[in-house]
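Troubleshooting: if your tokenizer reports a length mismatch, compare against these two reference records.
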Amino acid sequence: MNLSAAHHQISLSDGNNIPLIGLGTYSDPRPLWNTEHVPSMVLPALERTLKALKLDYIDLYVIEMPMAFKPGKEIYPRDENGRTIYDKTNLCATWEALEACKDAGLVKSLGVCNFNHRQLELILNKPGLKYKPVTNQVECHPYFTQTKLLKFCQQHDIVIVAHSPLGTCRNPSWVNVSSPPLLNDELLTSLGKKYNKTQAQIVLRFNIQRGIVVIPKSFTPERIKENFQIFDFSLTEEEMKDIEALNKNIRYVELLMWSDHPEYPFHDEY
């Protein structure tokens, strides 16, 4: 794999390409959210996105989560007790609606987010499947290496896209703060000194050498620039193994507020 500054993209199973690093842009509200899993709502959601972005098509369209919420305008529909109101999930039906968007020329590639291997198999084994998911966006970093899910996805030509590749914010309302901050790790610090790089650059380089796309989020222009300066050095095989050994198999982003949803993806091992 040629990971130079000029060549930092990998091929997807549908013939398209994806850069190995992008910009994390998470914010609320978002299109094709959990409230729009109903097949008839998928195309209108996409059309609103295209109108907002002033585009004729988008490169990659994904199911954000495998958990459906009550359809409507509320991003987080809640009952009188403040609990999220769920909706019956039919991932195959939602996927078929995405396939129709691709057939209409509005989308180049299709993928999913936060799916476990069972949920991926549900799509892959769907009768009449027209297009396989080409990506699965999940939390992935040295403290949560996703080794088993990565192997499964590689076996099915699905590229892992790592959200929260640098860890994440320390907001205890939705983040597991029992695991220490990733970027304070002593090994990552020492490797940063060796290569004259930041801990973040070491972490991002680790994942792209595994063939994993990274989408770090930052509001700081200098850090955004630094995040892209990861193509002028390479970690050794031994260093890669040392970093992988940091795995704690603990998520930062657990989404426990939805853990009673029938399709909550993180009850499974991977």
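Reference record two:
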Amino acid sequence: MDSLKKSANEFNKNSFSFSNINQNDVRIDTPFYDRHNEAIVLYASEVNQKICLTDGGYILDDLEADGMLITQSREKLKILTEQLKAYSVKLNATTQELYIEIDIDSYPVKQNLLIQAMLFANDMFMLPK
């Protein structure tokens, strides 16, 4: 069973890449892929002594570029917000960012919740326009 833990630790160590953007912002490249088969990227920003993990607005902007206007449909927005709530993820309606506020101790779990929320939202392109 120790081999499972070792394998998971090696995966995390080798599959996530962290790049400093500036003093307060970090880009996190993940091993997970969106519907275009592109790696999911997160951003971590320190704001007022809190850390905010975000998709940078990518998911909803990408859907909008393909004609899926989630925020302009009450039904679709309701589906999205209910699912985001299940993942403890919030939506910034102005920037269209999916985000979650974290502390260092909760980072791994919150990162996974944000990625799951992003994948869910990304799959909403399958809903009828």
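Descriptive notes for reference record two:
- The first helix runs from residue 2 to 15.
- The mean pLDDT is 91.
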